[in-house]
Amino acid sequence: MPVTSQPAMTDITDSEAGHGRARLMQKGQQTKSAIVDAALGLATQIGIEGLSIGAVAEVMQMSKSGVFAHFGSREELQISVVREYHHRFELEVFYPAMQEARGLPRLQALFANWMKRTSAEIDSGCLYISGAAEFDDRPGPVSDALASSVKTWLSALHRCVLKAREAGHLAENTDAAQMSFELHGLILALHYEARFLKTDKSLDRAQRGFEHILLRYGASPT
């Protein structure tokens, strides 16, 4: 009878080992994502500085060593939280606005999304704003990660203003940097008044402020 060739035992073992490693890596990534999600929720309550391996381990009902294995340090955990916050900010504010026509419609959508997220964070707080208060005088990797995220966002806002000017939706002499500064100031005022001072109609005032800025820079708000 012809001898039927069989897969080598070493081949089967290597293949199974490969699948096993892939499953472990996937599970590890899922666990790490869950830890970052829990840490982000905690950071909105106690601040980024308040985050610790022990505090997150308690929320996750894990051992400290289990959390530490995924990050290696408290600082790396904090940076991961900043990056996750920035990622969610982009998903909610930036990318939906990019679906609008270039120019004024996109700028209006960008600011509307920004206001919507800010209003949703009145109770929990904006990590960019609270983080700046925590780390403005504390240089280091966490402060750098925060500043880099905010600068990335403000650069995107600045480019959006430039495109609106190029499209003729704003006056030719529009100072894009100044307009971006003023829009950023509106959001900071909205957050401060709504969250800290509990001022009524803060959102309405922010919207009116946006419309006034558009008019000053030669646009007709819709």
What proportion strand? under 5%
In whole angstroms, the N-to-C terminal distance is 85 Å
Total strands: the figure is 0
Main structural class: mainly alpha
What is the residue-mean pLDDT, rounded to a whole number?
A: 87
- The number of distinct helices, counting runs of at least 4 residues, comes to 9
- The fold-level CATH name is Tetracycline Repressor, domain 2
By CATH, the architecture is named Orthogonal Bundle
Major sheet description: none
Count of domains: 1
Order of SSEs, N→C? HHHHHHHHH
Instruction: Give Rg in angstroms.
Output: 24 Å
Which descriptor suits the 3D outline? elongated
**Can you identify the CATH class?**
Mainly Alpha
Residue share in helix: over 70%
Low-confidence stretches: none
What name goes with the CATH superfamily?
Answer: Tetracycline Repressor, domain 2
Task: Write up what this structure looks like.
With 222 residues, the chain is an all-alpha fold. The protein has a single domain, classed as Tetracycline Repressor, domain 2. The protein contains nine helices and no strands. The protein has helices at 9-46, 53-60, 64-71, 74-97, 104-120, 127-135, 141-166, 176-197, 202-216. Helix 5 (104-120) packs antiparallel against helix 7. The longest helix is centred in the N-terminal third of the chain and has 38 residues, at 9-46. The radius of gyration is 24 Å and the shape is elongated.
Tell me the layout of helices and strands.
Elements (H helix, E strand, L loop, with lengths): L8 H38 L6 H8 L3 H8 L2 H24 L6 H17 L6 H9 L5 H26 L9 H22 L4 H15 L6
